[in-house]
Amino acid sequence: MDESVVVTREPRLDEPRLSVRSIVVAGVLSAITILMGWTRLGFVPVPTAAGNATIMHVPAIIGGVMEGWIVGGIISTIFGLFSFIQATVPLFKDPLIAILPRIFIGITAYFSYAGVKRINEYAALVIAAAVGTLTNTILVLTMATLRGYMAPGVAVTVGITHGLPEVVVAAIITVAVVVAWKGVETGRGEAKM
Hints:
single chain; 193 residues; Arp2/3 complex 21 kDa subunit ARPC3; two-stranded antiparallel ribbon; disordered N terminus
């Protein structure tokens, strides 16, 4: 057996155990999420009314893709908790908006990735990034509307002007990071996709 080949195994739904690697990855990506929020590096200037698109959810997507739905859910929850703790507007001081919808980012990213990766790895990464991003956008805006913080028309406008740029940015970052990460894992400097 060629020792330079890294054999990875997909986590299964009936195997909710976390490996040491999964715990480390969850910790590192959660720390990156907090760092991006704390330093404001997680907000990319875009030409929309809000002025910024967030990439704070991207570590949750990457964690879900690389280590499975449990790790994705842990990182997503950390993102939601951080958003709640750092909130300066009433909308995100509500845990049903800041935390609850965000739990599902890494989970939906994992399942969409797992469903498509056998067909095309790169397409699976793009789809996982899009699904994870849209999970964040749609669930947060839906909860904001249901909780009375935002009118439905405003939520749709924000979803279109904010959600679409965030999908593009998340897809670019997710593909770049996962391909590079898998390249490092193979030890050859090239991604084995």
